[in-house]
């Protein structure tokens, strides 16, 4: 796999892929043949030619991100208050969760309904995974 360099010339020159005169293109890093566009295979030496951005775009498909679990605000706040470091920060990057929003702090009566919904969600998730 090669990473060619971009060229522009004042006078048109023939490309190795189409044998047509062009002013711009890419030079093969192995044999210095000129090609019009990327990604392609060099017609002279057979080297696969790509830009680094092509490689970066395709690389993320090789190592997909792990699925994450949504943490409800009240659960994160309770874990932080209890001093549970594992539950009060992101398990992937260890960034602490932000403080509980003021809207949720001012509604103590809704905390029981939120906790009930969280229990129901856990049951649903457990049924789906189990």
Short description:
By secondary structure, the chain is of the alpha+beta class.
List the helices and strands and how they pair.
Blueprint: E1 5-14, E2 21-27, E3 34-35, E4 40-41, E5 48-49, H1 52-62, H2 73-82, H3 102-105, H4 109-129
Antiparallel strand pairs: 1-2, 2-3, 4-5
- Count of helical segments? 4
Quick check: average pLDDT? 78
User: Structural class, judged by helices and strands?
Assistant: alpha+beta
Distance between the termini: 44 Å
Largest sheet: 3 strands, antiparallel
Shape: rod-shaped
Helix content bin? 25-40%
**Count of extended strands:** 5
> Helices and strands, in N-to-C order?
EEEEEHHHH
pLDDT under 50 segments (min length 5)?
none
Radius of gyration: 28 Å
| Percentage of residues in DSSP E strands | 15-25%
Give an account of the 3D structure.
This protein has 130 residues and is of the alpha+beta class. It contains four helices and five strands, in the order E-E-E-E-E-H-H-H-H. The strands form two sheets. Strands 1-2-3 form a three-stranded antiparallel sheet, with no helix packed on it. It has a two-stranded antiparallel ribbon with strand order 4-5. Strand 4 (40-41) and strand 5 (48-49) form a beta hairpin.
């Amino acid at each position: 796999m090669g990473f060619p360099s971009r060229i522009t010339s004042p006078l048109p020159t023939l490309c190795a892929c189409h044998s047509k005169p062009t002013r711009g293109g890419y030079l093969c890093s192995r044999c210095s043949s000129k090609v019009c566009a990327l990604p392609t295979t060099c017609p002279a030496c057979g080297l696969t030619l790509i830009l680094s951005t092509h490689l970066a775009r395709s690389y993320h498909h090789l190592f997909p991100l792990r699925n994450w679990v949504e943490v409800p605000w009240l659960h994160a706040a309770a874990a932080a208050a209890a001093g549970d470091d594992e539950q009060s920060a992101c398990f992937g990057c260890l960034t602490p969760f932000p403080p509980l929003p003021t809207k949720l702090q001012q509604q103590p009566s809704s905390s029981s309904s939120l906790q009930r919904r969280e229990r129901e969600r856990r049951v649903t998730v457990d049924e789906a995974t189990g």
